[in-house]
Amino acid sequence: MPHPRTRGKGLRHRLAELRGPETQAKALDARALAALAANPGCRRRAILDGAGVNKAALASALGSPSVFGQSQFAFVRGNAFEAKVKADGGTELLRLAHEKLDRGAEPPAEARVPDLTAQGPAGRTARTELALREAAAEPGVWTLLDHPMLALDVAGSLAFLEPDAVVVHPDGSWTVVEIKSFPMLDGAADPAKVGAAARQAAVYVLALERVAERLDPPPRVRHRVLLVCPKDFSNLPTASAVDVRKQRAVTRRQLARLTRIEEIADTLPEGTCFSPELPAEQLEQAVESVPATYAPECLSACELAFHCRDRSRAAGAVTSLGRPVRAELGGLTTVGDVLAAARGEAGDPDDPAVAALRRAAALRAEALESAAGAARETADRAREVAACP
Fold it and tell me: Structure pTM?
């Protein structure tokens, strides 16, 4: 049984007690950090990820198992496409980087592909940094780093991140490459999937910037990443340059917030623990002690989404209808409040949201009355026709 959390302890010790002293911390990856940026207002996800809680195991223990994750078919298809893109020393990948990002440079006739093999994540991180230093010291040629390993400090501990590739341009600048198996149709891809890829790439950009800061002079980390996808319905690669400055800024703010998760931990009741080994009732009480900010987008980004959705619906929260709806309703936070305002039973008439709801309710009532009148008229005519000899 996990021991109660006590105040005044070091942050790392307190986070260990939150996940359970016998529970190993789940390392954060780029996908998880990108999901944090997708919902920066969720304190529940911040504390759970900061403490290294396995949210999939937690969701199962709460009775709302997660189906979040990539299918095995998509995983195999993605690996096959990535291998095709990187074949022949990354010739096609570098051609796309030249075409989409750096047409003023010499075409990549020859490129360096350093060996990044090393023992363990820390060794691979050091080998990646050495390769980047060597590329920065010898500008003028293209360099492709295949699956480099980067490290990013998250809440006082290192998260090891592995982008698909990093390209070093002849001018010494660095570009993150994301290779995805969803298609680009007529030069455009699904905006939601592109947004998720941009958030993930922004995490890699931040980690690369940390490496660049340790070099003198620091190389430029490009804010446009190369997104490589299949073209139309074929398996041929095409690419697009995606600006991730907005995603990078949001992720940086969220990571800074994660480094202050002690403030969230201080608000939790004494003895709070998120170990999946706890009884379901006690575990649910611990989870509900941290406020969540649920939105339908969480279903594709968080293992606890089904649990949070059920609680959000039970509470009648308007966030379950989506962020755009929530933003339009101002201070009206529940469906009950919205309906009461629309009926004129509550709410400030001068509030634009309340006024819009009442206007919409009046238009709806008018439309229903008109439809009912038309139905009555049709029924009367039908009866008259039926009564004729």
Answer: 0.73
